Amino acid sequence: AALTGGHIAAAGLHVYAGEPDFHPLYVDMKNVFLLPHLGSSTKETREAMGMLASDNLEAVLAGKVPPHPVKI
Fold first, then answer.
1. pTM of the prediction?
2. Rounded distance, CA 32 to CA 44, Å?
3. If you compute the radius of gyration of the chain from its CA atoms, what whole number of angstroms results?
């Protein structure tokens, strides 16, 4: 309502409810920009993510608790 009513001029939505599905109204709105997950798209961030996974794997293979467990 805020976007269609002009209370908010525009919005860039990086993460939104129901991903990857989203309300089709957003596609037709000229003041809404839908972005994929770009926040982690740097070389440094991707390397750090790989190191976290590597640290977890190394710990598990050594019979230890992983330092960065994934909660499901």
1. 0.51
2. 29
3. 19
Residues carrying an active site annotation: 37
- Tokens (6 digits) for 31: 């003041």
The neighbouring-strand residues paired with 11 are 32
Instruction: For 7-66, list the strands marked E by DSSP.
Output: 11-13, 32-34
- pLDDT by residue (tens digit) across 32-55? 988 877 777 889 989 999 999 999
Which helix (DSSP H) or strand (DSSP E) does residue 48 occupy? helix 43-61
Q: Which of 7-21, 24-38, 54-68 has the lowest mean pLDDT?
A: 7-21
Alpha carbons 19 and 11: distance in angstroms, whole number: 17
